[in-house]
Amino acid sequence: MNVLHINEHLARKGGVETYLLALMPMLEEQGLANHVLYGQGEAQHWSRAVAMPAVQRAQGRREAYEGVRRVLNDIRPDVVHVHNAQNEGVLQAALEFGPTVITTHDYRWICPSNTFFYKRTRDVCTRSYGHGCFTTTLSKHCLTPRLNYAVPFYRRARWAIRNAHRFAHVIAPSHGARQRYVEAGFPAGDVSVLPYFCPVEPAETPRPIPDPPTITFLGRIAPNKGQEYFVEALGMLPDNVRGVMVGNLGAGGETAMQALSVRCGCPDRLELRAWASREEVRQLLDETSVFIFPSLWPETLGIVGLEALARGVPVVASDVGGTSEWCLEGETGYRVPPKDAGAIRDAVLKLLRDDSMLSSFGQRGIDLIHERFRPQMHVDALIHHYQSAEAMRIV
């Protein structure tokens, strides 16, 4: 089977890219030939890759449509798998060509701002897509107020919802993500839940209890990720607890976090690091007592949480989006209200004060990865969806 994956980026940067670059070699092992059409990145990450900047541009619907059509006619895939793209021209070209599967890595196909997140109030949006998105953004700033960008984003969601019935299959990483898409108008029978797999090999047993106690944040530094609540919680914890933050700390991010740590009284206990390699992430998690996932938007799942569990690290996570599928309350960690540094502190202290709890939660996390998030389980289910989609072409 010949599969064309379409994604904005081909690089080792975010969760979607981590997923895609881990997925394709496993599909190759099962006899599938994988191609990638991407907007920006580095071609050396995959031997059969085609760059097309229009894939990541919100404007330029016609340019994207025509460019994708040319690539499709050249590669002739049996199935197109759309991950992330910035305009509806990409989808239109794929759907007109043949069976198209889409994974809802975020909410861009039903929410003009991608995230169902109000930047100004820092709350989750619970409204449905519609013309009100434009008026809401003036008060809550979820969508950019610049019309030359906002209109293409709105048009993209409108087009996707109107054409939802044309997809061969829609894959949601969590039940929460599936529910949002079905509520927006995607046919319930065409949307199934297929969680991401964990890209980190599970440990056999939890790592030794770290000394000194350490809490860790790993992820993008962005308004919807809640990193400041990690720093605030660290400032409330005892002086023997250290914190490690790993992410894209450039463009003023490091300075901002350092300044916040000073205000919170913990500058000497907060260590800031740039993006880490896969091996460095594993080592970092093995040195972590409790992993903190303070996200503010309804994450479709949260791959980094799976990585922590795989290494036997309990998690304290915001109770939003798909986190409830892996942060099992009182089993693998604790879920707390978003934007609540005090709740993070209380949950961390509960764990740090009981080594047996740290170990038992860690073991349950490892077991959960084996039960629900192993790569082969994901690959087998995905290939089944591909085969079903391909059969639709034959019919």
Write the layout of secondary structure elements.
Blueprint: E1 2-10, H1 15-29, E2 33-41, E3 49-51, H2 61-75, E4 79-84, H3 88-97, E5 100-103, E6 117-118, E7 123-124, H4 132-140, H5 147-162, E8 169-172, H6 175-184, E9 191-193, E10 214-218, H7 227-236, E11 242-246, H8 253-263, E12 270-273, H9 278-286, E13 290-293, H10 303-310, E14 315-318, E15 333-336, H11 341-352, H12 355-372, H13 375-394
Parallel strand pairs: 1-2, 1-4, 2-3, 4-5, 5-8, 8-9, 10-11, 10-13, 11-12, 13-14, 14-15
Antiparallel strand pairs: 6-7
Helix pairs in contact: 2-3, 7-11, 10-12
Task: Report on this structure.
Helix 2 packs parallel to helix 3 (88-97), helix 7 (227-236) crosses helix 11 and helix 10 (303-310) crosses helix 12 (355-372). The two termini are 17 Å apart. 41% of the residues lie in helices and 17% in strands. It is an alpha/beta fold. It has helices at 15-29, 61-75, 88-97, 132-140, 147-162, 175-184, 227-236, 253-263, 278-286, 303-310, 341-352, 355-372, 375-394, and strands at 2-10, 33-41, 49-51, 79-84, 100-103, 117-118, 123-124, 169-172, 191-193, 214-218, 242-246, 270-273, 290-293, 315-318, 333-336. The strands form three sheets. A seven-stranded parallel β-sheet has the order 3-2-1-4-5-8-9, sandwiched between helices. A six-stranded parallel β-sheet has the order 12-11-10-13-14-15, sandwiched between helices. A two-stranded antiparallel ribbon has the order 6-7. It is globular, with a radius of gyration of 21 Å. It folds into two domains: 2-197 and 374-394, 3-Layer(aba) Sandwich (Rossmann fold); 214-372, Glycogen Phosphorylase B (Rossmann fold), CATH 3.40.50.2000.
